[in-house]
Amino acid sequence: MLKQSLLYLSQSPTAKRMVTGTPVSRQMARRFVAGDTLDEALAAARALNDAGLSVSLDYLGEAVESREEAEAATDMVIRILEALKRDGLDANVSVKPTQFGLDLDPDFCRRGIEMVLQRARELGDGEGEIFVRLDMESSDYTERTVALVESLWADGFQNTGTVLQSMLRRTPDDVERMIRLGARVRLVKGAYLEPETVAYPDKADTDRMFVEEMERLLDAGKYPAIATHDEAIIDHARRYVWEKGIAKESFEFQMLYGVRRDLQTRLREEGYNVRVYVPFGESWYPYLMRRLAERPANMMFMAGSIAKESGIGGLGRPLAIGGGMVAGALAALAWRRRR
Ligand SMILES: Cc1cc2nc3c(=O)[nH]c(=O)nc-3n(C[C@H](O)[C@H](O)[C@H](O)COP(=O)(O)OP(=O)(O)OC[C@H]3O[C@@H](n4cnc5c(N)ncnc54)[C@H](O)[C@@H]3O)c2cc1C
């Protein structure tokens, strides 16, 4: 319930204005976001590389409303690629199709992504192309994203792959599509609010499907990424590859910047490839809300502080006690601001 409310608020402009205006949420964002600028992101990537961890950089932004915004995102992603090459970092890039204007015009979006893939190819310079992954957004975009990867591959852009979400009922078919294509898949549980018609309402089903799809990708996929902080699933993966004799070099674990650094390091020390997803940029609001939805304890702390800063401190205590009230308080704040 709280998770659903937070995911709903992640799309609310009023809640966005309220949350981004408070120092405590900026502080909270800093836990999950490497900084506002590319230089800060590169410094974070360097530090992770020094600890033996690979990186995927994500310039935050989604659902752009103008071509200018999409073009600015394209320019920035190309700057990231050039900086990765210049600095010799062990890193690739993740992008969101709606950041390139998928909602505005699919052809325009595709042209932007092609420009990025082309530049990533040139910069590979015989040492292997830089890989650019299309992140997966809500189920409204799943078919378009999977089909986009297929069509880019058909046109020779094979330095791209995507993300599949085990919470979606359609994912086993998408896993087979990506295996047939030979494209890399990052398997995740899914971070968006979805209707029961397309997604499992029960988390146990999402977890069960994650394990099934993970095994299939480990058996037949191209360098799959197992992207989770769920230790039970990670242990299952470790046992599975050991029993099946699957080489550690043939897949990677992925985790988010700011989440379970201890586990990232431990897996690396055990000889697994580990990549950390490092977001940066000023458009951190929806990203932060999705991270809070994954772990309500973070949210309770933040909502209590926002309530205090907004002058309705009386709400602070109930917020700290009742998780379900937190999102309600934010909605109340959003309503207060509208008046
Ligand atoms: C590298 C990477 C890329 C991703 N890309 C996408 C994408 O493109 N599209 C998409 O829909 N989703 C994406 N996600 C998010 C994913 O869908 C999940 O929402 C997220 O990973 C949390 O689920 P979990 O697998 O860690 O398992 P959960 O069962 O949610 O969590 C397991 C444990 O991990 C810890 N944990 C999980 N999340 C947090 C957090 N935010 N803060 C603190 N602790 C936490 C907790 O200890 C929790 O008990 C990505 C995740 C990763 C790791």
From TrEMBL:
Cofactor: FAD
InterPro entries from the UniProt entry: FAD-linked_oxidoreductase-like, PRODH_bac_arc, Proline_DH_dom, Proline_oxidase
Residue span(s) of domain Proline dehydrogenase: 42-302
EC number assigned by the record: 1.5.5.2
Residues the entry annotates as binding substrate: 96, 290-291
Keywords (A to Z) from UniProt: FAD, Flavoprotein, Membrane, Nucleotide-binding, Oxidoreductase, Proline metabolism, Transmembrane, Transmembrane helix
Any matching Pfam family: Pro_dh
Annotated GO biological process: L-proline catabolic process to L-glutamate
Catalytic activity: L-proline + a quinone = (S)-1-pyrroline-5-carboxylate + a quinol + H(+)
Manner of cofactor binding, per the entry note: Binds 1 FAD per subunit.
GO molecular function: nucleotide binding; proline dehydrogenase activity
Transmembrane segments: 315-335
UniProt pathway: Amino-acid degradation; L-proline degradation into L-glutamate; L-glutamate from L-proline: step 1/2
Keyword Plastid: no
Binding site for FAD: 136, 165, 189-191, 203, 228-229
Matches recorded under PANTHER family: PROLINE DEHYDROGENASE 1, MITOCHONDRIAL (PTHR13914:SF0), PROLINE OXIDASE (PTHR13914)
Record-given protein name: proline dehydrogenase
